[in-house]
């Protein structure tokens, strides 16, 4: 069954919820990510019918090597309290974005590579447990403008990647809200940061073992042919 949602209607509902966070996680007025629709996942539980309890949201630049039904099974692996399933970011983009916080807190795991660090998240593949998002008092508190402002100030954070930045910042503070998907469910291919000052640490973020289930050709990277 296919249901088509009008983008303008969704944006109209979204805007009051996400307006405050757009100044922290958008590239600026009139730019690609400044549109409210790029924060859809953040407030999906507020605007979708209550009978919808789980949604998988994916980018268009993906190639599937496994049955998407298997990805739905990941909802069963959510630990108690988790509301969103998401894979780690596979470039040192947040090592860069959190530079000021990292300089002021030299022992932090923020922006450090896996398995022990907190490299941030990539929103190309998202599992949204809408029912859990609705029920989570903590998650809904984090949508409040004052909370977003406080966290952005604490982490000296100014991003430009929409929902991905919000989830990343929240994940630094409350990792228990997230079920971390294996990298094979969102095998990102972009290598931009390797050529822009981070070649020495790039592979620590980019490395991914296992049979790839979903390729993600982010930053217009070609996806391997079969």
UniProtKB/TrEMBL annotation:
Signal sequence, renumbered to the chain: none
Give me any GO biological process, just one.
Answer: protein O-linked glycosylation via N-acetyl-galactosamine
An example Gene Ontology molecular-function term? xylosyl alpha-1,3-xylosyltransferase activity
Alphabetical keyword list: Transferase
SUPFAM superfamilies xrefs: Nucleotide-diphospho-sugar transferases
| InterPro entries membership | Glyco_trans_8, Nucleotide-diphossugar_trans, XXLT1
Q: Cellular component terms, GO, for this chain's entry?
A: endoplasmic reticulum membrane
Checking PANTHER family in the record gives: XYLOSIDE XYLOSYLTRANSFERASE 1
In Swiss-Prot or TrEMBL terms, this protein is called XXLT1 xylosyltransferase
